[in-house]
Amino acid sequence: MNHNAPISPRPLPRSGDDRLQEALHHARRRGGAVPAQGPDAMITGLAALALHRFASAPPTAMVDRIDVLVPRIRRLRSTARVRVVRAAELPEPVQIDGVPVAPVARALADAVDELSDAGVVRRLLTEAVRGGHCEPGVVVRELNRARLLSRPHVVDAVDSLLAEGRALAEDRLYEMVRSFGLPDPLWNVDLRLAGGPHLGGLDAYWPDQAVAVELDTRSPRQDDDALWSEYTRKREVLERLGITVVHVTPRKLRDAMEQQATVVRTALMAATDRDPAAYVVVLPR
């Protein structure tokens, strides 16, 4: 053995940034026409979630293959280091550190498409909602679009996600009442007519003013038209009885809490100008 022979230096591992640029370069230099307008390629999947600062996603340098989202018309092949994901229409990318990145919901769906570990899927979906990245309905719509809701481990994770989203919306409703000095309502109640039928459940109810708040946390997996018809029917019945119903979405509570508090306060103050409401029985839900 020649101990004096020069030792070939071991190649340094590429950084996460290098791998991202390699994936984008692969998508842009090959195959087919590029649309005249709109983005031509963006990072998606686990690498995109890492760029969105998901704690439950591995660093980009540790992702086995970088997912890159391209228009469907591009003639590209996946490689050992790059997985090509196609879409009929690309979403508007988010620029993170100069890198075009798919929005969270789209990146999440592309990541889940490659994951079989139920625990990992559940953690990613939960972080998307708990971390304030997007609302549950947006996530579920993307999963539905990607035809992932037939997979049992994804369905289980979505059930946890919707429960998480509901709990978060309720916490924001409590915060709204406290932060903006609204009188304390009765929380989570059912209303019935005395000796009559069940009128429906409410998230908050002020009996002295006959004002109710109902959170709209419909799941995109449900029959949206049927459920909205049920919401509308209940609201009409209550309002015929003199009860004002304020409909609030989780997004409005997140993005415009003060505005929603003003709507509720206005309804409470207007109670003195309305005819007294019918007597109803209030029960804990």
Count of all domains:
2
The residue ranges in which pLDDT falls below 50 over 5 or more consecutive positions are 5-13, 31-37
Let me know the average pLDDT.
Answer: 85
* Beta fraction: 15-25%
Main beta-sheet annotation:
5 strands, mixed
Helix content: 40-55%
Shape, per Cα inertia axes: elongated
- Helix run count: 9
Q: Report how far apart the termini are.
A: 82 Å
- Structural classification: alpha+beta
With strands numbered from the N-terminus, the spatial order across the biggest sheet is: 9-8-7-6-10
Radius of gyration: 25 Å
Protein name: DUF559 domain-containing protein
Describe this structure in words.
- By secondary structure, the protein is α+β, with helices and mostly antiparallel strands.
- It has helices spanning 16-29, 45-51, 104-112, 118-130, 136-145, 152-179, 224-240, 250-255, 257-269, and strands at residues 42-44, 66-71, 82-87, 94-96, 99-101, 186-193, 198-206, 211-215, 244-248, 280-284.
- Strands 9-8-7-6-10 form a five-stranded mixed β-sheet, with helices on both faces.
- The model is unreliable at 5-13 and 31-37 (pLDDT under 50).
